[in-house]
Specification:
DNA polymerase, domain 1; two-stranded parallel sheet; Nucleotidyltransferase, domain 5; single chain; HRDC domain-containing protein
Length: 424
């Protein structure tokens, strides 16, 4: 066992208000190997059942992480799942070989799961049958506790005094077999998650914020799956340059064609065709393939077959009747952009300015980001259409209806009441 492994058995608790105490001078210790070594990758049902049995019999919270292949593959599916629990050790599971992990999810469903940036991993875990009923998000805990840097590596270093290697975070996790250095990195990602959770729980309790964090974690665990985004093609990078409806139709046709190709080939859409090329083609509206080859992104390296498919998408958009062209912008379901408030409703603009100033001051006193104190969109909606009368009860009810948690309502209601009444 290395010195780092021995030290990891007795983790120093360094969290005090987002920074190590003055009397902690020891340099961070590089954590180079998992304390139990690199476990074999689970890739068959027999081994998976053994893991399920072991984790069901373990004690305490379960550290959970997942690796995706963003930028390489289509979608956000998991290509490796890592878990660690006292009494069960660490498990690395290949969800391409074991695509149904619902049995594992059920075995640990009543246990607290510890994740870092839970909302990033929960969608891909849900796809393979794993959803927690109770969780602790160490990144969100760090935000609430006032840590300026909340990445896993920074948190482990600042709170526990260990340095994690982060060199493999953006690799292609769909590769097989996975290289040993990647597996080491993956195992280390869950090595200290529970220790980090315990330290952050103590720190949140010391700051009087533990109940706030528990409400946030409950909201994440109980949130329904997000609905598919409407008109995702509108989020093409550079879309702000496209003003004419016919050009928008070209973006839509090319985006949908690219998405179908990417899904069929199981590659990232950006590897099929970049957003910049789509926007350039929409602006140019090339009438034929020869003209398309002069558009940036469609040069000599592109095959004739590829050019044909992109020109076909453009031609479909060019042939659409006027009534079928997309409308500019998206249906507005909330208040207009704040920059337009001064012209549309000066009184609302004044309310928003006062509310923002009050929320900012309160967040600074509480040593947490404003967006964690209350969602900016929530503030905008309350200020654009304030409840009447704007008293503590009606404002609290409005915040509750917009999804604010009880701790947020208690803290923010007085600030918003003052802003809405012109006393902020």
């Amino acid at each position: 066992m290395t010195d780092a492994q021995e030290t990891a058995a007795e983790i120093p608790l360094r969290a005090t208000g987002g920074a190590p105490p003055d009397d902690v001078e020891a340099a961070p210790i590089p954590l180079l190997e998992p304390r139990d070594g690199i476990p074999p990758v689970i890739a068959d049902d027999v081994s998976l059942n053994e893991v399920i049995t072991a984790f069901a019999a373990g004690t305490g919270p379960v550290a959970v992480d997942a690796e995706r292949a963003s930028g390489y593959r289509y979608g956000q599916r998991a290509y490796l799942v890592q878990l660690r629990r006292e009494g069960a050790g660490t498990a690395l599971i290949d969800p391409t070989a074991c695509p149904d992990l619902s049995g594992l999810g059920e075995a640990i469903s009543g246990t607290e799961w510890v994740l870092h940036a839970a909302t990033q991993d929960l969608p891909c875990l849900r796809e393979i049958g794993m959803m927690p009923t109770l969780l602790f998000d160490s990144e969100l805990a760090g935000r609430l506790a006032g840590f300026p840097r909340v990445g896993l590596g920074a948190m482990v270093e600042n709170v526990l005094g260990f340095v994690l290697e982060k060199g493999h975070s953006a690799v292609d996790w769909s590769s097989r077999p996975l290289p040993e250095p990647w597996l080491r990195y993956a195992a280390l990602d869950v090595e200290l998650l529970v220790d980090l959770r315990d330290a952050l729980e103590k720190e949140l309790d010391r700051q009087g914020k533990l109940e706030w964090a528990l409400q946030e974690f409950e909201a994440i665990a109980s949130a329904p799956p997000p609905e598919p985004r409407r008109d995702p093609w509108r989020r093409t990078s550079g879309m702000h340059k496209v003003r004419r409806r016919r050009q928008m139709a070209v973006v839509r046709e090319m985006w949908q064609t690219r998405d179908q190709i990417a899904q069929r080939r199981d590659v990232s859409p950006g590897k099929v065709l970049g957003d910049t090329a789509i926007i350039e083609a929409a602006l140019a509206l090339p009438p034929n393939m020869h003209a398309l080859t002069s558009v940036n992104g469609f040069g000599h390296r592109m095959s004739r077959r590829q050019l044909e498919q992109w020109q076909a998408a453009i031609d479909r958009a060019r042939a659409l009747p006027e009534a079928e062209l997309p409308q500019p912008g998206q249906p507005v379901t909330g208040p207009p952009p704040p920059r337009a408030w001064a012209d549309k409703d000066p009184a609302a603009a004044a309310r928003l300015s006062a509310a923002r100033a009050g929320v900012s001051a309160l967040a600074e006193r509480l040593n947490m980001p404003q967006e964690n104190l209350v969602a900016p969109d929530t503030v905008r909606r309350v200020c654009w259409e304030p409840p009447k009368p704007a008293d503590p009860d009606t404002v609290a009810a409005a915040l509750l209806g917009l999804g604010a948690r009880q701790w947020q309502i208690e803290l923010v209601t007085p600030v918003l009441v003052a802003a809405l009444s012109g006393k902020g």
